Amino acid sequence: MTELKSGPGKTKENDQVTTETPRRQPTLDEVAERAGVSRSAASRVINNAPHVSRAKREAVRRAVDDLGYVPNATARALATQQAGSVVLAISGDDPGMFADPFFAEVVVGVNSVLEETELELMLSLATSSRGQARLEQLLRTRQADGVMLMSLHGDDPLAALAANASVPVVFGGHPLNFEPRYYVDADNRGGARLATEHLVAAGRRRIATITGRLDEGAGMARLQGFQDALAVAGLDNTLVENGEFREDGGSIAMTKLLDRAPDLDAVFIASDQMAIGALRVLARAGRDVPGDVSIVGFNDITSARHTEPPLTTVNQPIHALGREMARMLLALMSGDQPSPLILPTQLVIRSSV
Amino acid sequence: MTELKSGPGKTKENDQVTTETPRRQPTLDEVAERAGVSRSAASRVINNAPHVSRAKREAVRRAVDDLGYVPNATARALATQQAGSVVLAISGDDPGMFADPFFAEVVVGVNSVLEETELELMLSLATSSRGQARLEQLLRTRQADGVMLMSLHGDDPLAALAANASVPVVFGGHPLNFEPRYYVDADNRGGARLATEHLVAAGRRRIATITGRLDEGAGMARLQGFQDALAVAGLDNTLVENGEFREDGGSIAMTKLLDRAPDLDAVFIASDQMAIGALRVLARAGRDVPGDVSIVGFNDITSARHTEPPLTTVNQPIHALGREMARMLLALMSGDQPSPLILPTQLVIRSSV
DNA sequence: CATCGCACTGGGAGCGCTTCCAAAATCAGT
DNA sequence: ACTGATTTTGGAAGCGCTCCCAGTGCGATG
């Protein structure tokens, strides 16, 4: 098999070999010619710019229809120096982290506003360092006109990258290490406070918490909200155990907590997945929920309504988060300077308190 | 404020106005100049093509490093007529359908193979007709070099579009109306048969099913698998109720089923969400699961292990589905003609049978 | 009737890269 | 040292579009 050698016939000349016409897309020149106008005029019509007579304008329109012309986005991008796309980047060290339904819903939100524009959505799961490098190039070569960046943990190198990117960047969530200029976040701290206050209001006095990763903004904010509430109530806030944002993370942390403070009567858990794990441990330990100990989770994942008992939790407007990130990016791209946005969270009361 | 009027000085000349240099990306010409070679030579080095002397090759490499040159993807795309990206399109009539964690995991699978390549991933949620039109353009203007198309239901217009697209298309799942040339699907029929056989083996004789949308390949395949198993067992297969792929779809269908056949002793349900709804109805009706009636679901969503009782269900390799779609597309793009692929499904036994 | 202002018009120069091709340089082989 | 084969080399022509700009015509103005 000859592989790298190009075949003998020139590509352009084997048209007649096959009767089927793969029909190259018509170009602007062809449209112009058919309409009997200059390319410039045709271009103006396409972009409906002024300075073209009614007659020509219509001639061009007709030609476009006849030929089924669609402007070549790549050429346009090259000429205008605008990619016509934005990227949603999810950073993190776990390749599978995007599998969290959370992101799926963010995507839907983002899409809902992008759909109204001409912008395409690129997805960049910058988990591996390879992925991060790719994202970096993407920005440096301006293959995208803007970025929505989510979930940077601790010392995420992407943060710096984003800071001096040549395109607008909006953050989803509030990174820990620095104050991004533009971001939209859910009110994690407020939500956590709400949850904890709910526990206090229910008469609980020995309240613990299981935190998520404290090198992420959300994890830290939820811990702070917890402490806020306890400070106000004048209760002990040292019953803190931290775990991975997973089911087993919750189990492990709950076990430790039970060890440290067998008398605890409530725990605020920074994610529903962890809460599920904790619930399991509690059941095994013979503690009744909510009889002996009350539980509040965070996120309001669908599973939360099917736990035993159904989980009281904090709902955050994920779809809105995506939507607002996209809106903010659009604003930025059109030259505005939007203010950061914090979306309200809400307590969803079920039966675990 | 002068707005649209361009300032008096030409853009290129105001370098010294601001001390900060926003530093335009270097171009290939600049690299060539610095390396003292022609642009063609530089290009060859970048694409490591042959016909360039060792000395020049190194000079260019050095220049690239010094300048931090990164090829402009858009220009390259225009010159090569290759976009350098592929799109994952999810079609459907429900805008929020992508929120199903199923897709999130497919994306992760797709990403895992794309990450090894230079290809970017574009996401197209073609739910609205606007979205579909956009996708169509995307393909017509060759903004993407290939498509992975998922979840077309019944008379999805995208099917036709895809059929005569000018770029390779691989289907995720097997559409109902036509036989796609390239697709990867999960063995829905086999999985359903497995599930039903499991019910038969458990001694059940009055077995019903709740189907999903029958205008989708997967929904239909699961029904067929169910019927296959019953035919072999010589049992009645007319206890079929169809519902929406949602929790309440399951509840409604289960209610009807209980009405039609109060004596049923098992039901195979085409999705876990529906199974959850059905479980709820069963509990309310005082039927014990699995004592009075056995249940098998489909999909093995995370919630499935937290239902009461934990749900026996059919697991499909979602990550692999995404991975294989991407692989197949890659193969197609490099000129191969891969065969359709059907991924095995697996029965996950928990406590609902 | 000469002059000015303006809405059109199309030529042409890019955008940054690939790639064809003819010319130059190098390498063998005698 | 000379010819033919083989590499290297860089000029130049695109890829398809945008947009600047000089030019053309025409009604309005003095």
UniProtKB/TrEMBL annotation, chains A, B:
Pfam families tied to this protein: LacI, Peripla_BP_3
Region (Disordered), start-end ranges: 1-36
Keyword terms of this UniProt record: DNA-binding, Transcription, Transcription regulation
SMART domains per record: HTH_LACI
Comp. bias (Basic and acidic residues): 10-33
PROSITE patterns: HTH_LACI_1, HTH_LACI_2
InterPro entries attached to this UniProt entry: HTH_LacI, LacI/GalR-like_sensor, Lambda_DNA-bd_dom_sf, Peripla_BP_I
Domain HTH lacI-type: 26-80
A GO MF label: DNA binding
PANTHER family registered for this protein in UniProt: HTH-TYPE TRANSCRIPTIONAL REGULATOR GALS, LACI-RELATED TRANSCRIPTIONAL REPRESSOR
Protein name per Swiss-Prot or TrEMBL: LacI family DNA-binding transcriptional regulator
Provenance organism: Kribbella koreensis
